[in-house]
Amino acid sequence: MTLIVINPNSSETVTAGIDQAVEPLRRFGTPIRCITLTEGPPGIESQLQADLTIAPMLRLAAAQPDASGYVIACFGDPGLHALRDQTTLPVLGIQESAVMTALTLGQRFGVIAILPQSIPRHLRAFGAMGVSDRLAGDRALGLSVADLADPARSRNAMVATAKDLRDRDGADVLIMGCAGMAQYREVLEGETDLPVVEPTQAAVAMALGHIALKLSKRGNEHA
Amino acid sequence: MTLIVINPNSSETVTAGIDQAVEPLRRFGTPIRCITLTEGPPGIESQLQADLTIAPMLRLAAAQPDASGYVIACFGDPGLHALRDQTTLPVLGIQESAVMTALTLGQRFGVIAILPQSIPRHLRAFGAMGVSDRLAGDRALGLSVADLADPARSRNAMVATAKDLRDRDGADVLIMGCAGMAQYREVLEGETDLPVVEPTQAAVAMALGHIALKLSKRGNEHA
Amino acid sequence: MTLIVINPNSSETVTAGIDQAVEPLRRFGTPIRCITLTEGPPGIESQLQADLTIAPMLRLAAAQPDASGYVIACFGDPGLHALRDQTTLPVLGIQESAVMTALTLGQRFGVIAILPQSIPRHLRAFGAMGVSDRLAGDRALGLSVADLADPARSRNAMVATAKDLRDRDGADVLIMGCAGMAQYREVLEGETDLPVVEPTQAAVAMALGHIALKLSKRGNEHA
Amino acid sequence: MTLIVINPNSSETVTAGIDQAVEPLRRFGTPIRCITLTEGPPGIESQLQADLTIAPMLRLAAAQPDASGYVIACFGDPGLHALRDQTTLPVLGIQESAVMTALTLGQRFGVIAILPQSIPRHLRAFGAMGVSDRLAGDRALGLSVADLADPARSRNAMVATAKDLRDRDGADVLIMGCAGMAQYREVLEGETDLPVVEPTQAAVAMALGHIALKLSKRGNEHA
Amino acid sequence: MTLIVINPNSSETVTAGIDQAVEPLRRFGTPIRCITLTEGPPGIESQLQADLTIAPMLRLAAAQPDASGYVIACFGDPGLHALRDQTTLPVLGIQESAVMTALTLGQRFGVIAILPQSIPRHLRAFGAMGVSDRLAGDRALGLSVADLADPARSRNAMVATAKDLRDRDGADVLIMGCAGMAQYREVLEGETDLPVVEPTQAAVAMALGHIALKLSKRGNEHA
Amino acid sequence: MTLIVINPNSSETVTAGIDQAVEPLRRFGTPIRCITLTEGPPGIESQLQADLTIAPMLRLAAAQPDASGYVIACFGDPGLHALRDQTTLPVLGIQESAVMTALTLGQRFGVIAILPQSIPRHLRAFGAMGVSDRLAGDRALGLSVADLADPARSRNAMVATAKDLRDRDGADVLIMGCAGMAQYREVLEGETDLPVVEPTQAAVAMALGHIALKLSKRGNEHA
To answer: Would you say the pTM of this structure is higher than 0.90?
Structure first.
């Protein structure tokens, strides 16, 4: 049986990044398969795009006969509760898992958002999670799409944003607010001296625990 | 120009009920057209069903050339923020509007839910709205689907639930947690002596105000 | 029957500004009469001044035989709950209504306060409303009374404050924290590209909805 | 110099009860004078009545030349912030002080309200204080005015309400939600085995501390 | 390298129960050693007893040369932050981990407390975690110490308490509020049809994830 | 009978400072004895150090036969609830009392922390108290230990930090986040024009009130 990690955007590069990010968790023994939602957009930049991935994501999830659990690998957790309605297997979202993990690592978490328009979406999610009082700040990189394609600029912007979250907002733990950027985790930790939560790692770790412990919603209204 | 009220379930009866509920607001002068999402399920009973209405609802909304604003008439507000991404016209959800209206009518609001499985969904929404401290309680009718088809049983269950919200939970304003039941509002007010917010009425009233005042998100990332 | 909008300060200029601000809502069909509390101070700058308007405001409200509802047009909502005790007609406050309206337009609201000493008063009110988690920030113009009399200075300070709320505090919707400044709404929206809620407009729109829907506290302990 | 305790209702019996309640604090050395607002109503049962006491209460406070601080002895704290605007001397309200005292005695406080219509008023105040998460419950005695005049019935209802707050709501500290009932404090503690805060005692104790430590708002906009 | 699970009470039976509870997580590959704090009391029933375990617990932790991480296995998490000060290795508490795990399994968590006097302690912890809005209820078994020694009575009381949390408080996920009772998890899930979090399982799962991902506080003020 | 004030660090200088700070409260008539925990560290800079003071502090408290109440004079309130378990006498912590006092003096409190690593500890405590919404900010002095020994540097850093809390964070009341610095209170009030709460003064004032009013936890599980 296999943990299925679904990247709801269509970027194979992002899926490959996720696959590499979760490598340290493969020694737990459960196979982990990272798959791409080909119907998804190249990147998810709005609630509109996020919501439109749900229907094909649910179909893709249902088409994995060896699944023993799922991770939805988009910060924003599109379709998280819908998939929990569709299956009784464990389902984790990377945003929710990143927050729950961060709350064990510091008192106030800071979020590095890629785009400023994602921040209200994050705040709605943190409100729904009931953890707003633990949020230090949520700051966007301030890069254009062109800049984001430049690794050095991305890296520098992430470090600068991380330091703002630490120094201006008082964050003592950081969350990377998107999938597929795990390669920057180490440099962020080194530059800020704070623990940094990469959300796909956090969700896969929690999912493997849930699978091992048979922790999931019981009953299934829509199976 | 017309306010479009979209019933995301496929029940024409519900749409007709909404149409009648908003009748007192037609004298404000803006035409109000209530339409049915034929692709929707007969009733929306889960986050899964709610999320699956979003894509066709967005298409239906886009196909209304005379729209001056929208109301999404399902308690749960599926696609609310997605439609706000799609258009710069005012977009109101009946859950959000019902809560904002109730907060001007009492200190603690009680919600009459049709089904118990909807309550966690409501609570996530109230958390995202940041109004959890104003919630007195959210109680389900406790009826089977068969019972719900019986008007006398529905009415009695709504009155009993409303009284529980008032007497056990301390609610001093009530929200009807679904569309299409406006015909019970008067009896609920009479039986409880509390103000009762019917959510489609609340949303249409707010939408007409927003249209008149040109209040909506500015800019449009996805037009 | 008429919606009565009471300006609790004695400035006829402010009343005239309110009257003009609500003009777009007159086409809803209900007459709107804006009246001045002659016993009020020229401007309300403290809780002390606000509280002292309540007794004469209640008398003025009671002396409007054609009233079908009331709006108290001072940010701070002095006497809001007292007037709700005095009458069973709908009573809206401009602060409360502005917040409820803003919560449908953005995730975090910013407030433009005229004077710094008003901010603790606002914060108490937002706490009582249970919406503190949605507040991005509340910032004062930083003008002397002399500066406030200069329209160009006021306008510039409002724009600068609005931009601070957006850029420093993360507000995505703004509330003008006083009555009588509706003429600046358009420039604020243009300069910030954010929706801006003018509180008397918000309250009158909600009041007209409440009147049409017969939404108000039932029962009346002091009629 | 003297601490002035103002009973904003016109009942000399209540004032006498307050005077007796604060007797154990007289040995702190500061004279305590309890005075009655003759313009007040016999009892304060609504926000309307509370607000109407503010103007004469402010005048009464200003007419105490030997004041070194004030306590406003009505649960609801009418005029608390107005009087803080009027004077730079320490000003305490009995509701606020009772809550702050209770928070040092238990994790969740329960409030014994006299009348059910007071509860929304209390909840607004607890929200403004930002302490709603510490509230276990607020329950009314459920007595008619006639019953309230009967000491045995009052006593029994207070004990029953206190036990409900402890057993149903989980309160581990209780607040008496009105002035003038200090004589029941001992029996309530005995019957519930919980600490019970009598609000005029709590406020006078805090006021004496503030006076001794010169703790009060600095500056005075309206002196 | 080994994950060290410290039972801060002196009961070898409890330690054995923990050891068995975490068995399903041993296949993740990291050795897990459960040890008993012999200086601890037989059971931890108060903040006083909890606090007194900290000093010897810290010494015991420091004496484990092969540690790659720690779990403090007392609901109440005594010494959690102190041990995080003492080491840079991952340190998880079972209360904190149980809550973070539960928040991925339901919207409102219910806690089964052994003793009523533990509840205020729990509430302080949930407040410090900032998750009070997600708490449905915290209820004690209502058993005497003698009753607790009787497995049938304990089991029955746990089931009854679990059902109260579900039916009266609206919990949709349950947390067992103590270590060493994992044997009842299955029956609780069966009887309530809700997911049940056993806290030592939750903490060990999270700790193994943290170890694999090198997630812990960086820097070490007291090493 | 005597109020015992325990300084849990071993610095006699700090104890002497506390003794002087509470001098204005000696005229209340209850003797106040300030004692030093000789087993404590010279200063308490971490949760680890704080927790390790609890066991000897409890012994020291138990060894005061004339005690009528206790104050634990370390910001962080180590052992506060443990000592409340050990005795039925009133027990106040200086952090808790400072916050409760500050909440009667302004709407948003700012905290002057000595060391940055104390801030997460403070935030956990404010969360446990349920008062996070009233916190404006918590800022550290930014001094090295060497700098702290220099009175002029300490004073200047405190003033600068206090002004940041007022001007950047919107604090309208300040709390000194440690014991033994009461000598700076006056200058801070003068420089900021805000009320400043010195925590040992606040706690002793509240303790004297509790003693006079016989306010404390009833029953005693561990006497």
So the answer is: yes
